[in-house]
Amino acid sequence: MAPRGAIGLSLPKSSQANSTFTVPVIPNPNFRRDGFFELSKAYRKYQRHFSHLVIPPALVNYTLPATLSSRGSKTGSVVASPIIHDTMYLSPIYIGSQKFNMDFDTGSADLWVFSNKLPKTVQQQHKRLGGAIYKPAPNTKTARGLTWKIEYADGSSASGTVVIDKVKIGGIAVATQAVEVASKISSSFNDFEGDGLLGLGFSTINTVSPSKQKTWFENALPQLKSKVFTADLNKQAAGSYSWGFINTQYTKKVAYAKLRDSGWWHVDAAGGIKVNGKSITDHGKYTFGAVPDTGTTLILLPDSLARLYYAKVPGAEYLSSSGAWVYPCTSDSSSSMPSISLPVGNLWATIPGKHMTYAYANSAATMCFGSLQGFGDPDVLPFIYGDIFFKANFAVFDYGNRRFGFAQK
């Protein structure tokens, strides 16, 4: 599997000593975009939480093909240069005295890392890819009796034991953070260039057993100037995560919606959608709201709303054999797609058409895979707002006031 994510950059100094900081990230120029694969991963991720979610048969065992068309996929090779591969990101953190590049995920709450407890062959493969292996220092405390096991979007999994170590991100260090030490990973992680994942969800969805552990962000709250973190994930350019402050460029523009009491970053989502500014609804009740999730690539809406959106796209069709929407195209970065506005509480967040094509859907580069895909029944599943959402909107995760905010970019 080609590496998802991005190349970590060096950390800047904290803008407010031990109170605020920013972690820069850039997309991985070697990532192979495959919409069917991303959709399959999203189904598997949320099936863990919604057992009634039915995965389309064609996506159940979908794997990346050996090669994909490279047409239209030129990339930059220096920091801040335009890069066409817009997916998940990796950012640098320190565990103990060791540096790791981690995938930050608001849809999970586990901090786990590749470790020296993994089989030697797995460690060697990870090092060949430029990855780092966590080795607890002799005086690192083991959290006796605690174990963890998590499964991610593509069905990949990891498990192991727990230690207590110092974790530093930017200018903020948590001296006694639960770190999940991987002793077993599924084969799909063998080619993963990231060193692990940092969950930014609420600790109520942490998988450590028998007692859940606070996330790094929750433990860092007393040190932060403000109990917020933000995501600014740009398309074809460097992005960033920031803690403790909101970029002044957006401060007065951020609109907020209250969080639902579910243990997730989870807001109401009423009123259907807007396509090119015009309201469209399938008359669903939308009782399950919406989840802003940096750990998912695509935008996932009820099947009926996806159908209404693609009714505005010439030649669009739902491939029942693949479980996804595709359409004719001449470029995999076309800006001719309709814009979409998504509900965030009683507000609307707009995604311009230039973000609504994710990748080519065939090797001939004549069909494209949409950034929006269907995701079951509107009355039993939430809307999922993945990275496509964050590339169009600056996002504020406000822990202190239990709200989620966004500002149009």
Written description of the protein model:
The protein has 409 residues and is mainly beta. It folds into two domains: 187 residues, Acid Proteases (Cathepsin D, subunit A, domain 1); 154 residues, Acid Proteases (Cathepsin D, subunit A, domain 1), CATH 2.40.70.10. The chain is built from six helices and 26 strands. The strands form five sheets. Strands 1-2-11-10-25-26-12 form a seven-stranded antiparallel sheet. A six-stranded mixed β-barrel has the order 3-4-9-5-8-7. Strand 6 and strand 7 form a beta hairpin. The radius of gyration is 20 Å and the shape is globular.
List the helices and strands and how they pair.
Elements: E1 6-8, E2 21-27, H1 35-47, H2 57-60, E3 90-95, E4 98-105, E5 111-113, H3 120-128, E6 141-151, E7 157-169, E8 172-185, E9 196-199, H4 216-220, E10 228-232, E11 239-243, E12 255-258, E13 273-275, E14 278-280, E15 290-292, E16 299-301, H5 303-310, E17 317-319, E18 324-328, E19 340-344, E20 347-351, E21 357-360, E22 367-370, E23 372-374, E24 383-385, H6 387-392, E25 393-398, E26 403-408
Parallel strand pairs: 4-9, 5-8, 15-24, 16-23
Antiparallel strand pairs: 1-2, 2-11, 3-4, 3-7, 5-9, 6-7, 7-8, 10-11, 10-25, 12-26, 13-14, 13-19, 16-24, 17-18, 18-22, 19-20, 21-22, 25-26
SS element count, helices: 6
Arithmetic mean of pLDDT: 83
**Head-to-tail CA distance between termini:** 32 Å
Cα-based radius of gyration, to the nearest Å? 20 Å
Strand order of the largest sheet: 1-2-11-10-25-26-12
- Which CATH first-tier class of the largest domain would you pick? Mainly Beta
| Share in β-strands | 25-35%
CATH architecture of the largest domain: Beta Barrel
Stretches with pLDDT under 50, minimum 5 residues? 1-17, 66-87
Number of domains: 2
Roughly how much helix do the residues carry, as a percent range?
Answer: 10-25%
**What is the CATH superfamily classification of the largest domain?**
Acid Proteases
Structural class label? mainly beta
β-strand number: 26
Shape: globular
Major beta-sheet overview: 7 strands, antiparallel
What fold name stands as the CATH topology of the largest domain? Answer: Cathepsin D, subunit A, domain 1
GO molecular function: aspartic-type endopeptidase activity
Keywords: Aspartyl protease, Disulfide bond, Hydrolase, Membrane, Protease, Receptor, Transmembrane
Protein name: Type I transmembrane sorting receptor
Organism: Drechslerella dactyloides
